[in-house]
Amino acid sequence: MRLALPLLAALCLAACATPRVESPASGAVHGSVAPVGTVTVLERYVTPENPDDELDSLATWPTEDGATWLIATAKNTHELVVFDADSGEQLRSIGRRGAGPGEFLRPNGVFVHGDVLFVSERDNRRVQMLHLPDFAPLGAFGQDVLRSPYGLWVHERAPDDLEVFVTDSFMDGDRFDVVPPLATLERRLRRFQVRFDPAGRPQVGAGVALGDTGDALALRMVESLVGDPAFDRLLVADEHRDRRALREYTLDGRATAGGVAPGVFQAEPEGLALWACTADSGYWIAADQLLPLTVFRVFDRATLAPRGTFSGQVTAWTDGVALHASPTPRFPAGVLFAVHHDRAVAAFDLGDVARALGLDQACAR
Asked: Which residues does UniProt assign to the signal peptide (predicted)?
């Protein structure tokens, strides 16, 4: 099994009409003003809209024939949608509503490591593993401890030995916006050990709860998370309206006082991606979920200092993003993919982003 693929992602943008502006969800800010200095980076394409899907998270996978797939979770239709990452053409849909192997119930997070696809399902309360390219089910885990799993990030400790970090944004009672007591918030972040035997069969350990329970650092509402082993850093986006921030943890689960503090994001910090240019340089890109246009905030990889903001021409109300740093025929500098208004995916050329913001041009080569 191919288990050494680095964290990559892709962005897709084909011609589509200017989006309709609708009443925003709980975290979106309608009619917001972009920060001073925000530049426009034109989308290279936006995929045709499909409002029924309710797209959320994205991941990419390089196929054995040299193409790249862009895989999106479709929460409302309970399936995965597969696009050609270079063209934005929809290739197929995977799965159906259900609780069996290869079936989904509100799939949310998605992550590719090698030829294994990890999918978190909020309403099945599990993380499912599928083999690529055939999407054959490999098993599932977390049903015994997860309540509302959302985001996923996978770290390879050793060949065939993975750590899977999962955010669990369960709420108090039936109210989706009532945060549970602090003492329970250690369960906001869990880490599972997944090992593959020589036959490719996964063995999964018990999920370890890592969330901080102190008032200052506890995670209130969570979804996206991405790690950076070079800096022993795991960033977790806290979407709570009073706490909008990127919280920092070490990879062994210790909360720090670092990250991006509240006050920077106008709306929910949603999609999050690491743009690694060299072993220890690059940028973080985080989506500020705004209407009428998403603002993408760029931070220095090492210091987390702000390095600029950009918006597309139409991309709005973004949930997940995926950054595919490897060159493709259409995107030789790499590509950033971003969900547009729950119904389409936009693609930004990373070379365009680097030039527009005056970033290190080595990142776009």
From this structure: 1-17
